[in-house]
Design brief:
Layout lengths: L2 H4 L2 H4 L16 H27 L2 H29 L12 H30 L6 H23 L5 H6 L1 H30 L4 H28 L6 H12 L4 E12 L2 E10 L5 H5 L8 E10 L18
Parallel strand pairs: 2-3
Antiparallel strand pairs: 1-2
Helix pairs in contact: 3-4, 3-6, 3-8, 4-5, 4-8, 5-8, 5-9, 6-8, 8-9
Length: about 325
């Protein structure tokens, strides 16, 4: 039997009218921190570009331009937060606007990948055609840049009890990786400049740039994978799906014959499950059996009557076999 056909309006009424905002209208902690970091990044960007021109330092100029690209990416991050809040109650979006968070993170990951390519290209160019650097001035500005980037990393990475946001908010993770990449390039620039100043190892500057490009590329690939899965409605981890199945099937003659669990926002999941039961109960009965603490905010249950022993029924090609 289906939810509407056999359970009666008195049993299904509570399931019909519901909101799809799932808290997306609230200002997230990551948004406030991102706005502060944008201001810091934009300020340091201007300082490094100006210092690069003044001191003839290609390293500082390049780092300033890198920070400019990251300031643009962080602006995308902030815009995604604003969009989510403003359209949280927009009925045109079937499961709310939580995925704009993953979209912002995906866009940021692409910019990270482009940033890594630019770093690699500039580093190889400096290996082929070295440039002279005003070491003292460049080192001083690079140290200031490292301090600013360190503060930005702390703001976005130090959760103060908001571990849920940090682990599930792909938008926040994208911003965090951008400022971490900036901090890394500043640190590598300092190491290279010190090596060039005291040991005449001019090749260290472009070499460190290549190392940094490889690390940033790895971060980008990881973020592209995680956000891409969300945007493509990939199934939740097999462990969670198996836990949901165990809770629904325990204690009575009922079997899960179709199960879909996927992310619809930071820490938010939707569930569609089809059950076969010899003695069906109300939809709310089965919803109450779902495990807590996994962000299952939108649950759709279909119950069908079964005859005889339903214990052997399983999904024909179980989605639990692969992630």
């Amino acid at each position: 039997m289906s939810e509407k056909q056999d359970l009666g309006p008195d049993r299904i009424g509570k399931s019909l009218p519901h909101d799809h905002s799932f808290g997306q209208e609230e200002r997230r902690s990551g948004e406030r921190r991102t706005l502060i970091v944008i201001a810091l990044t934009a300020t340091m960007m201007v300082v490094e570009i100006a210092a690069g021109w003044a001191f003839g330092s290609m390293a500082l100029l390049a780092d300033g331009l890198h920070m400019a690209s990251h300031a643009a990416a962080l602006t995308i991050t902030a815009a995604a937060y604003v969009f989510a809040r403003r359209h949280a109650h927009d009925e045109r979006f079937s499961f709310g606007v939580g995925k704009v968070n993953a979209l912002g993170g995906f866009t940021g990951a692409i910019l990270l990948a482009l940033f890594a390519l630019v770093m690699a290209f500039e580093s190889v160019s400096r290996l082929i055609d070295p440039v002279s650097i005003a070491f003292d001035q460049a080192i001083a500005v690079a140290v200031i840049g490292l301090v600013v980037n360190g503060v930005s990393v702390w703001l976005l990475g130090h959760s103060h009890g908001d571990d849920h946001d940090h682990h599930h908010d792909h938008n926040l993770r994208s911003a965090y990786l951008h400022v971490l990449a900036d901090a890394l390039t500043s640190l590598l620039a300092i190491v290279a400049l010190l090596a060039g100043k005291f040991f005449a190892l001019a090749w260290m500057d472009p070499t460190m740039g290549i190392v940094g490009a490889v690390l940033v590329a790895r971060w980008s690939i990881g973020l592209l994978r995680s956000t891409g899965r969300v945007l493509l409605d990939a199934q939740a981890p097999a462990e969670l799906r198996e836990e949901i199945r165990r809770h629904l099937e325990s204690g009575e003659d009922v079997r899960v014959v179709d199960l879909h669990v996927w992310n619809i926002g930071p820490g938010l999941r939707a569930v569609i499950v089809s059950l076969v039961a010899r003695e069906p109960h109300s939809v709310e009965h089965y919803k109450a059996r779902l495990p807590e603490g996994h962000g299952l905010v939108h649950v759709t249950v279909e119950v069908q009557p079964g005859e005889g022993d339903v214990s052997e029924l399983r999904e024909p090609h179980s989605v639990l076999d692969a992630d």
